[in-house]
Amino acid sequence: MMCMSISIYHICLIRHVASACSRAPSYLAVAVCVIYSNIVFGNGSLADQTEVSAVRPSVKTDRAVYPLPPAPTLPKAGGVFTDPTFGTEIMRVTDEQDGKENCNAYSYWPSFNADSTRFHIACGNRPMLYNFDPKGLRLIGKEPLFAGKPSSLQEPRWEDAMWAYADPNLLYCHEGLNLWAYNVVTAEYTLVKDFSNTFPPGHLCQLSKNSKGDVFAGSLQDPRWNRTGYFVWRRATDQILLSTTVGHDEVQLDKTGRFCVVKTGRQGKGVIEVRVVDLRTGGIEDLTDDGPDFAPGHSDNGEGIVVGHDNITNRITFRRLDSPHDVRTLLDFKNDWSQDYHVSMVADDETWATLSFYVGNSLPSSGIFRNEIVQVATDGSGRVRRLAHHRSVFKSYWDSPRANISRDGRFIVFTSNWEGTGQRDVFILKVPAM
Fold first, then answer.
1. Rounded distance, CA 231 to CA 249, Å?
2. Which region holds residue 408: left if phi is over 0, alpha if psi is between -120 and 50, else beta?
3. pLDDT of 2 over the 60 cut
4. Quick check: 402 and 340 in contact, CB under 8 A?
């Protein structure tokens, strides 16, 4: 796709070291002469030229370009530091003692449990469970996520292991065609469903569930891990609501369990990229990649809603799943195609969507939101809360931050290789109160 060059004028950056903060060794008070780009975001048009001077590190709500200042010295695992631009507290969860390949799973799979007292990540190929003090922002301890194996003697997959909505100790996980409920305190497995009598031999893959844990959806794979179809299952009635062998990329339920969003994996003019299945009525709405629907690409679902990327006109969009052809623009990036991002709608408060931007190409860039973790209002006002630079340099998929927010909206988990070092670690961002 042709991209117009982005015109960003001079940026003057003056830094000086100020007095020590209570929880960080120091911060940089930044005097920035910022020139805005001529790109329009959301419903507002950026001013041609705006100067921001003597800026104290704080959450930003503007559209200024904030160049990356020198990186803070990273503490050891468990240590907390302050983002020098946005003033937020960030904990380093892992370090060299945990290996070089540490990561969270994905933006729509919650790392944190129901009350933010535990979270799970991977250290190398080892899924780990961390105990966490949300009030004190400190790690209490860590242990293997799965203390043992279920009766099948196969360890569950960790990436899409999903916390129960109400019970902070309960985790839904799977191996083969078995769906388990695992209590992380007692280390006991309870079989939720054995699908071996329902589907051919193989594996469950990329699961999602509604908030109540009553409806589950996912992809199916054969014994060699080839994608063979997808399904939706209602637990209360032990009923398959939807099952097909049609090719696809992924499926995801909304939080209510009424809607299933099917990504077909196909793009192009007039091509159906997304199908919205109403599990209550059986109705299906097809969304085209291009107009008039501009189907959501990278996306996440809330309660009857989906927030995602419009691949054609370069917008973040919002739509209700009961009327998916009606689209609301949350942010419009116009000609800046330099960044990709992941969306997280895991928080109970859906008035904000959490975005983790990363640069995966060399296209012209406005510099706005570059490699930042940002929240955008879902009401279409264009309001943003810019929270942190994640400082990850994209070299491969696992270098993307894939940030996901906690249910209570207080914490964001993300991955970073910290300016392209050989060390990939997990971090927790404390979200400031509104």
1. 13
2. alpha
3. no
4. no
